[in-house]
Design brief:
The protein is α/β, with parallel strands linked by helices and about 300 residues long. The chain is built from ten helices and eleven strands.
């Protein structure tokens, strides 16, 4: 990835300021009253201060296994540590045309953009360092982490003001994963926002997962799970570039949709084998509520009975 993609502009874009102010108020309220501890449980990083023992999952560092607890409980557990320094959080936003679909008034893209901005603001309130790599067909930029609220607001504003890719243009993005691997220090949290269409694993992906916590964030539309019954539809497929006629009463159409869903689910699970590292948002739901639910799930994912020495 060329260094020409790395920018450090100082001006705060004007267009998304009102939205950012609303999101910032909601994020601060949530951190203060709801998820201050759960956020740290979800984005664990790598520190030196012992926190508690939790179940071992694929991708965890083998060196963190607590063999005494593992022997006593009969299944692998590892030590979890609290990050003593600020976390380094990198958001990778893959702005594929496939995100521009929504049957409920909100597109996948809008859901993911709002969730990304909220996560950036929550991370900033927790004094973490936030960077963003944005990738659209033919257009990529990277903003390095800046300290303080103003720096995070500026990067979030730039992300929110990005124009959606053309539906009649290229359908795929080139995410420079080798650059992400170099930019992400050991123990960083890498949040990948995207459509996750079935494809080969990115270059250096498993190596990146060994060095960092990688979390996949996707948006699901109700039609992704089940087509509406008895409908005759003409839809545009931004991936193939063709108009397609759909008869949702056809058993063949519904079977093809089920196979499509299964392929996408299998690919997403292959990218992120740990259930804890898969975050699914619904277009029909409030992204902030779903983020809170995600944080709370992690807050309860410890050994029964509380902390263990």
């Amino acid at each position: 990835m060329s260094r020409s993609y790395i920018t450090t502009g100082a001006a705060l874009p004007a267009a998304p300021i009102a939205l950012l102010q609303r999101l910032q108020w909601r994020a601060r309220h949530v951190v203060t009253n709801t998820v201050s501890g759960e956020y740290r449980s979800a984005f664990r990083g790598k520190g030196m201060e012992f926190d508690q023992v939790v179940k071992y999952q694929w991708g965890d560092d083998l060196r963190d296994i607590d063999w005494k607890v593992t022997a006593r409980l009969g299944e692998p557990y590892r030590k979890r540590f609290i990050e003593e320094r600020d976390l380094s959080v990198i958001l990778v936003f893959e702005d594929s045309p496939a995100l521009q679909f929504g049957s409920t008034g909100r597109t996948r893209r809008e859901t993911l953009l709002e969730a990304a901005a909220l996560l950036m603001l929550i991370s900033s309130i927790n004094r973490d360092r936030v960077s963003v790599l944005y990738s659209a067909p033919g257009h990529t930029w990277f903003e390095r982490a800046l300290s303080g609220r103003k720096g995070t607001l500026r990067i979030a504003a730039r992300l929110l003001q990005q124009e959606p890719p053309l539906l009649d243009g290229p359908a795929t993005c080139h995410v420079p994963w080798s650059f992400v691997r170099q930019a992400a220090s050991r123990g960083s949290v890498v949040l990948w926002f995207g459509a996750f269409a079935p494809a080969d694993l990115p270059d250096c992906w498993r190596e990146l997962q060994q060095r960092c916590q990688t979390v996949g964030v996707r948006a699901i539309d109700p039609w992704d799970m089940e087509l509406p019954a008895g409908a005759q539809l003409t839809v545009y497929d931004p991936i193939s570039g063709y108009l397609t006629n759909l008869d949702t009463s056809s058993p063949a159409e519904r079977a093809a949709h089920a196979r499509w869903r299964e392929r996408h689910e299998a690919h997403f699970e292959n990218l992120f084998p740990r259930l804890d590292d898969r975050l699914t948002l619904w277009n029909s739901e409030d992204p902030l509520r779903e983020l809170i639910a995600y944080f709370r799930r992690h807050g309860r994912s410890s050994v029964p009975g509380g902390r263990m020495a």
